[in-house]
Request: fold
Amino acid sequence: MLKIDSISSHYGGVQALDEISLFQGEGEILALIGGNGAGKTTLLNLISGIIRPSRGKIVFKGENIVSFSPERIVELGIIQVPEGRHLFGPLTVRENLELGAYRRRGKQNKKKISEDFKYILQLFPVLEKRLNQRAETLSGGEQQMLAIGRGLMGKPVLLLLDEPSLGLAPLVVQEIISVIERLRNEGTTILLVEQNARAALKISDRAYVLETGKIRLHGIASDLLETVEVKRAYLGQDS
Reply:
């Protein structure tokens, strides 16, 4: 479904990504793990068209999308839930969810959008209790649920999740992780950026480890979870 071919990216004179290549199959969770500054968010922003690469290709369903606008990329079904959530704080939960479907508006989609709205509330029951509450008044966990729900309202073919567990309590993290697993089981393809390497690798099919803009390791997620390098660098274990 997605193929990254020798992508490089620079911020001024600093190289953020250096000849990154990876692929993602339809229906799988692919994890990108690594520390701060590894280039994980940069890669997501490249896929979303928010920034442009210095060189390389991003091929989605056989089409090079490097020159596409973010709006066109969203229309293809690539939707990013950004780190930090970026909700519309003064707007209600309902309004934030409705805005997630703004590119789907039209009589032919009205019924499906309504069905998807109900589906989001079923995924995150707490949001139904907060529908008329401003997004900025929600807890951190509720805001993350709303951000994911808003992304899902766009009907993603490929869902990009950037640090969905960041700053959340363990019980909320487990709830978010369970929802991600459910989405995959129901057919959503997910590219997951996560500093919580243990949680990411446990639910992913495959994974890539990024360090300072380069891919250092890649393979089956469960295998990487057992490697000495990953244990030492990301799990706090010596062996």
